[in-house]
Amino acid sequence: MKISGVDIRPGNIIEYEGGIWRAVKIQHTQPGKGGAYMQVEMKNLIDGRKNNVRFRSAETVERVRLDTKDFQFLFKDGEQLTFMDKENYEQITLDAGILGDAAAFLQDGMDVVLELYDEKPISVELPSTIEATIVEADAVVKGQTASSSYKPAILDNGVRVMVPPHIGAGTKIVVDVYEQTYVRRAD
């Protein structure tokens, strides 16, 4: 399906210069001279390269629809991740690099969605938020206001996030997987 360059949105998968790319960030710019354009930061889904491309409204790109399938994460063995197809129970092993920084948030038994292009897995989509426990948090510095200051904390998966001053070690929190940020205290 062809779409105009200015209709690209974050998360769209497009075919560009013979590769399959995911739009990560977009910025619509309308300069004083000349026509408007869309500045698109893209990530290649096959080899992980990043690229910044400027699309004008007259340009069209091919939007790609990926097949999606529900899988369950089973275990990690070194840099290899093993997933199980929830329909036929077949197992598939992928390199941890396919997930990037989000790999740290994988939990045994977690339901994920694999995106397939020509029957080949090219990306793994985790839930947008997960619950994690803080194992280490800095002490509150006296005189800081609660509204604007955050302190560093380390989660049980080793990821470092910034949390409000009232959150201490042992607290369960909800974390945004892709932004790696504190969302709220877990119920």
TrEMBL record:
What GO molecular function terms would the record report?
A: translation elongation factor activity
Could you tell me which residue ranges the Elongation factor P C-terminal domain spans? 130-185
- Annotated localization: Cytoplasm
> Boundaries of each Translation elongation factor P/YeiP central domain copy?
68-122
Which Pfam families has this protein been placed in?
EFP (PF01132), EFP_N (PF08207), Elong-fact-P_C (PF09285)
* PROSITE patterns linked to this entry: EFP (PS01275)
UniProt KW keywords:
Cytoplasm, Elongation factor, Protein biosynthesis
> What metabolic or biological pathway is this protein involved in?
Protein biosynthesis; polypeptide chain elongation
For this protein, the record's SUPFAM superfamilies field holds:
Nucleic acid-binding proteins, Translation proteins SH3-like domain
Alphabetized CDD domains for the sequence? S1_EF-P_repeat_1, S1_EF-P_repeat_2
InterPro entries listed in its UniProt record = Elong-fact-P_C, NA-bd_OB-fold, Rib_uL2_dom2, Transl_elong_fac_P/YeiP, Transl_elong_KOW-like, Transl_elong_P/YeiP_cen, Transl_elong_P/YeiP_CS, Transl_elongation_fac_P
In terms of NCBIfam families, this protein maps to: efp, PRK00529.1
What family does the database annotate?
A: Belongs to the elongation factor P family.
Q: Which PANTHER family match?
A: ELONGATION FACTOR P, TRANSLATION ELONGATION FACTOR KOW-LIKE DOMAIN-CONTAINING PROTEIN
* Summary of the function given for this chain in its UniProt record: Involved in peptide bond synthesis. Stimulates efficient translation and peptide-bond synthesis on native or reconstituted 70S ribosomes in vitro. Probably functions indirectly by altering the affinity of the ribosome for aminoacyl-tRNA, thus increasing their reactivity as acceptors for peptidyl transferase.
Q: What is this protein called?
A: Elongation factor P
